[in-house]
Amino acid sequence: MVLVARDAARLEATAAELGGQYGIAVETITADLSERDDMHRVAERLEDASRPVDILINNAGFGLHSTALNPAEVDVNTRAIEVMCVAVFILSGAAARAMKARGRGQIITVASSSSSIFSGNYSAIKAWARTFSNSLALELSGTGVTATALLPGWVRTEFHERAGINASKLPGIVWIDSGKLVRTALDDAAKGRFESVPDWKWKVAMFLADHGPRTLTRWFSKKLTNSRKH
């Protein structure tokens, strides 16, 4: 297993935990995926034929509450695009080349249910990730390599706390267990599915957002965006 993150101490702690619990070798790469040099360094590791990576999971990201109307928030938005778009493009391309040469492999890109609504730049970024993953899947058809876009809703992780999102008032039904999400995503990727939605309730929500009246989606998106301003 190869883990990539910015926090070297946390990386090493996680590697030690996984290695001790499962008896596996864990390699760590300290990298900031908003920096191009770090992106290319990880891409080189993905293309190392002597140490093949069978599954790439594009999971780096962070939440956004910013607006294009605030010039002070330009930097955080451009950084988000680097981490969740440019890095996904570069690393997926490197992995796809190496996997195609071997005739097997899986690429999972964590997009979001937000990709089907209009909630600021985060929705736009995740819509790009979803579209890119689907396009890559088509390009890789017949090669033995698959690309799957993961489209989760609200998952019980530290993401919301770190993003400053108060999720305490959300009803229990909207939440997805992280273990269930991971199992479903890996199973869908192994089956070569283009998209993975890890729970029936979010499958329904995504269907309505994708195929329902756009006026309804815009209304919901506006309500959600306004609720996060308070």
Account of the 3D structure:
- It is globular, with a radius of gyration of 18 Å.
- A 4-stranded parallel sheet has the order 3-4-5-8. A two-stranded parallel sheet has the order 1-2.
- With 230 residues, it is an alpha/beta fold.
- The longest helix has 29 residues, at 74-102.
- It is 51% helix and 13% strand.
Element layout with pairings:
Layout: E1 2-5, H1 8-22, E2 27-30, H2 36-46, E3 55-58, H3 74-102, E4 105-110, H4 120-139, E5 145-150, E6 154-155, H5 159-162, E7 175-176, H6 178-190, E8 195-196, H7 200-211, H8 214-227
Parallel strand pairs: 1-2, 3-4, 4-5, 5-8, 6-7
CATH architectural category: 3-Layer(aba) Sandwich
Share of helical residues? 40-55%
Query: What count of helical segments does DSSP give?
Result: 8
Number of domains: 1
Class inferred from helices and paired strands: alpha/beta
Placed side by side, the strands forming the largest sheet appear as: 3-4-5-8
Cα distance spanning the termini:
41 Å
Cα Rg: 18 Å
